Amino acid sequence: MDIVSSISKVLVVGLILGAGLPALFALGMRAEAAGEGQLGRPANPALKYLGYTLVGIVLIVIVIGILWVTRQTLSYYFDLRIFPDFAYK
């Protein structure tokens, strides 16, 4: 059962990061475009800022992911520990 538990955890994270982030980015782009106003429709600042927020969340997750992958290198060469101690060997 330990293998099934591990596989399910990987599947859930893969779905969230693999399909969730591009979907969130697409929703952000769509909201930003709808917020600009098009052909006679007035601009909606709330949708525009919602789009910016969603794209910002995606960018923050990408930067955190890159820092997570490079955490050992940053710790070794620069003595920089961004994450809690349990993340390091």
3D structure, described in words:
By secondary structure, the chain is an all-alpha fold. The protein has one domain. It has three helices and no strands. The protein has helices spanning 2-36, 45-69, 71-78. It is elongated. The two termini are 27 Å apart. The mean pLDDT is 92.
Would you summarize the structure shown here?
The chain has about 90 residues and is an all-alpha fold. About 75% of the residues lie in helices and about 0% in strands.
- Say what oligomer this is: single chain
Shape: elongated
Tell me the number of strands.
0
Query: What gyration radius follows from the Cα positions, in whole Å?
Result: 19 Å
| Proportion in β-strands | under 5%
Distance between the ends:
27 Å
The number of helical runs is: 3
Structural class: mainly alpha
Sheet having the most strands: none
Mean pLDDT: 92
How many domains is the backbone divided into? 1
User: Would you identify the regions where 5 or more consecutive residues have pLDDT less than 50?
Assistant: none
The sequence of SSEs as H and E is HHH
Estimate the helix proportion, in percent.
over 70%
